Sequence to fold (238 residues):
Amino acid sequence: MVQIEEDTRSLTIVVTHTVYFGLMTVLALAGNLLVFLALYRNRRLRNITNLYVLSLAVADVTVATFLFPFKAIASGLRRWPFGYNFAQFVGCIQLLWIGASVCTLILTALNRYFCVVKPQRYSIYFMYGYGSVYRVILRHNNAVAPSLQGANSSGAARAQEIKSCRVLFATVFGFCTTWFPWICFLMLEHGFNISIPSVALSIAMLSTSISAWINPVIYGVMNQAMRKEFQNILLCRN
Fold:
């Protein structure tokens, strides 16, 4: 028999949680469906990097469909009305979402690293991660950027790779920022037996859901081609 803890939240917190998860559902679905449409409409966006973008969008749409709406309903009702088995299913969806997002970001980072740093050694063992990619971006800005004036198509392609790395770094930073507080609190509680205030835990937990819709915002701000396609979709232009 599963014991359910009594919901002791105030009405204000209940309403806040319910509205919050409802808003997260709308933002995640709208933003990531926009990514789907952009990749479907524009063939030029269908490159290797954007395949990873598509993978992240699939994971985020899945969690926005099978997790957030039910959390909103359960919060509003102050109980879980969907049964034990569905609760286990939702928990699995959340774990898969985290795992898929992390694995996709790692694979994207490795892809960008070898495209930018070791373009001729794509098949060697992976030795470096996000830090190496970011250092290459800084070196490129300081030393290579002036030489791009009048460069050939190869130089233009490399410049595009650098831009892709910037987007990647922003995506990784966004993911880490939204998940770091929650992970730290869990480690402190379960690893060091340090009691964390329930308000802090609640805020940290709520912040993790931001990672489900922040990626389309990053693409729209930092990726010119994606931003243009987003505008075309929203303005109903071909």
